[in-house]
Each structure stands twice: as structure tokens, then as C-alpha cells.
């Protein structure tokens, strides 16, 4: 059910919740959608995407910003487990230990400042172009010299 999929979050606007219920009824009707119904479906899906961007994180852009601010790390400290769940590497931002993802129990982190091959940099979390502990980031420190 579309409504149950989305309403697990407390932040679903009531209008969107109502529109999702109506859309679900249209789709369950088993009839070809009329042009106005198709336009309604496209609008609801766009509203849903705005409320919950397809970042794979399951949070809105506003919630993502709040999470990044709350943890207070400099740019480049965000990474993803093999299943796409975000996590932070503190201190210098280089992976020095392995641990477990609290969402799916996959192995995260790495050793000797090297990220595990099955983990990824998550620059989309804070807008960073490079991991904090990387050659690219170190070279940026010397621009202009």
C-alpha cells in the first residue's frame, strides 16, 4: 500500500497523505487512467519526490541537513556501507577501524586510512567533493602556493 510505505514517517504532510490515498484508489480501480487522473498521478509523485527525495537515505533534504549539522563534522567525513546506509568517520576522516552498520550489520570503515572496497564516499550528505582523508583533499590545502 502506497500510504503505508510513506506514512511510516511522521513528517508526511496531510495533503500528500490524502493524495496518496486517492492515488492508491485510482490505481487499484483496474481502469485506464483518464488524462486528468494521469496529471493528478504525476503531480502526486512529484510532491512525493519533493518530500522524500530518491537519495536512498529515506529522509527528506531538510532532515539530511539537520543530521549533518547535528554531527558537526567538517566536509568529507560521510561514507556509505555496501547497502547504501550513511555513516560518519570522525577525527581525521580516514578509516582506521572496521565496525558494523547499525542498519544492516554490514562491515563498515577500513584500516590504515583506507576505506573498505565495498564502502563508498557519500559526498551527497554534505556536498563534499572528496573524502577528508584523500590525496585530492590534501592537494586542495596547497592551492595558491
Automatic annotation (TrEMBL):
<keyword id="KW-0862">Zinc</keyword>
<keyword id="KW-0963">Cytoplasm</keyword>
<dbReference type="GO" id="GO:0002376">
    <property type="term" value="P:immune system process"/>
</dbReference>
<keyword id="KW-0479">Metal-binding</keyword>
<keyword id="KW-0391">Immunity</keyword>
<protein>
    <recommendedName>
        <fullName>RZ-type domain-containing protein</fullName>
    </recommendedName>
</protein>
<keyword id="KW-0863">Zinc-finger</keyword>
<dbReference type="GO" id="GO:0008270">
    <property type="term" value="F:zinc ion binding"/>
</dbReference>
<dbReference type="InterPro" id="IPR046439">
    <property type="entry name" value="ZF_RZ_dom"/>
</dbReference>
<feature type="domain" description="RZ-type">
    <location>
        <begin position="59"/>
        <end position="128"/>
    </location>
</feature>
<dbReference type="Pfam" id="PF20173">
    <property type="entry name" value="ZnF_RZ-type"/>
</dbReference>
<dbReference type="GO" id="GO:0005737">
    <property type="term" value="C:cytoplasm"/>
</dbReference>
Amino acid at each position: 500500500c502506497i500510504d503505508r510505505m510513506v506514512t511510516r514517517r511522521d513528517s508526511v504532510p496531510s495533503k500528500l497523505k490524502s493524495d496518496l490515498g486517492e492515488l492508491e484508489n485510482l490505481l487499484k480501480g483496474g481502469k485506464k487512467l483518464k488524462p486528468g487522473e494521469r496529471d493528478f498521478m504525476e503531480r502526486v509523485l512529484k510532491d512525493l519526490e519533493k518530500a522524500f527525495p530518491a537519495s536512498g537515505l529515506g529522509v527528506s533534504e531538510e532532515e539530511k541537513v539537520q543530521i549533518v549539522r547535528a554531527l558537526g563534522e567538517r566536509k568529507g567525513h560521510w561514507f556509505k556501507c555496501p547497502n547504501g546506509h550513511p555513516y560518519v568517520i570522525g577525527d581525521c576522516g580516514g578509516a582506521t577501524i572496521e565496525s558494523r552498520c547499525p542498519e544492516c550489520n554490514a562491515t563498515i570503515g577500513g584500516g590504515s586510512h583506507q576505506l573498505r572496497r565495498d564502502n563508498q564516499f557519500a559526498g551527497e550528505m554534505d556536498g563534499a567533493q572528496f573524502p577528508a582523508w584523500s590525496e585530492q583533499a590534501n592537494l586542495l590545502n596547497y592551492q595558491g602556493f
